[in-house]
Every structure is written in C-alpha cells, then in structure tokens.
Amino acid sequence: MEISKGIEIIGTGLFIRDEKLLVINDLHIGYEEALQQKGILVPRFQTKEIIRLLTEMIERVKPVMVLLNGDVKHEFGRVLRGEWREVLEVIDFLQKLKMEIIIVRGNHDPILQPIVGLRGVRMVTEYRIGETLIVHGDELVEKERLKDVKRIIIGHEHPAIMIREGGKKEKYKCFLKGKWNRGGLRKGLEIIAVPSFNPLLEGTDVLKEEVLSPFLEKISEFEVFVVSRGEVFNFGKVKDVGK
C-alpha cells in the first residue's frame, strides 16, 4: 500500500521507490539479552527473525540501500556481548547482498559507532532525500533544517493499537500519518511514524498510552495503517478508531 506519494508500506518498513531505499526502524538488537539479565527468560530468535523478514522484503522490492532509523541496539549506556555480535550479524548479512547501509542515530545508539565502524557503516543524525527528511523522532528538528522539506519519517514511537473483539484483544503494529505544524511553519509537514521492526516489541497503544515523540502532539488527527499478516488496513483517524 502507498502511504504517501512514491512511498510504500512493506511489512513493517517503508520503501521509497525513486531512491530504491528500504527504511526500517527500531531494531533494538539485544532486547532478549536485556530481558534475560532481568530474569525474564525468552527464547533467542530475534536476530534470525529480523534477517528472515529483511530477506523477504529485499526479495520483494529489490532495494539498493537500507536505512536503519535509530535504536539499532537496545541498551543505552553499555554494549552487551550479544548486541555486539548480533548487530554485526545483521550488517554482514546486508553487506553480503551488496546493500549500502546508512544508520540514523537514535537515543539508544550513543555507543553504537565502535561496532558499526568495524564494517565501515556510516552513521548520521538525519538523512535527506529530496523533500523527505528521515530522523529518529525523539527530538524536534530546528526550523532551519526544514527548508523545502514536505515530509518527515520518524521512528522512536513504536506505534501500535489494541483491537478488541468480544472477550479477545490483540495488539497490532501500525503506521501513523498526519501533520506537524510547530515552528512557525505556514503549512503543516507530513509526518509518517513507522513501527518497530523488532518482532518482540509490540509497541505503544496509541489509543490509550501517552505518546513519546514530540512530532505526534496532535495524534488524534493522525491516520492509522494497521499491519497484519502481510496486509495493510487503513483504520481512519486515531480519534475515530474504536468508536
């Protein structure tokens, strides 16, 4: 499904057609290990599943570049042993396929550079493609950096919604699309919030929980695009979902 002109939803990522660029967000590699250190036992399948999903997406849209939009690793102030190994495993997989890799730094990534630097991967604070700006989404962007920008793609939020049917309820990852009008802009910029690519992280229920990203302050007006079993469903605006 096309969520914006020239931009398709592919799984829980985005594909920018003209640039042949695949954008995925919030891998949080090492999340399993962090849970285990807290005494929560979970099976270690995260990285294999990430690579499996990436394989499907790459075979489908054939990108030439993959952009990892923030929070590639999970832990803030240290590097877990498994994080080091598994981050390199994902990068090695992509480089074996001759993909150019760019990483937009997220708030979980202050000490990611020593790892990705081993493979010569470029890290940036933002990435610009024509009228589209890609940032992690944990901080606002200064007005001066928005010249000629019409669209901002963000991560950080891990958007999801809880859907109830009778006595059953289930959380689904979703994309959000809406407008951001701060900073004295004459016209609101389009915002696209992308869910977490990590299969273990269901996300924040945007119908009930407080949002994290400052770009989503008027979230009730955002459109919801739910991802389920390889299909995408437009649920309308947040304020109307569940009525």
From TrEMBL:
Coiled coil: none annotated. InterPro entries: Calcineurin-like_PHP, Metallo-depent_PP-like, Pesterase_MJ0037, Pesterase_MJ0037-like. CDD domains: MPP_PF1019. It holds the Pfam family Metallophos. Signal peptide: none annotated. Residues 20-215 form the Calcineurin-like phosphoesterase domain. Gene3D superfamilies: 3.60.21.10. GO terms for molecular function: hydrolase activity. This is Calcineurin-like phosphoesterase domain-containing protein.
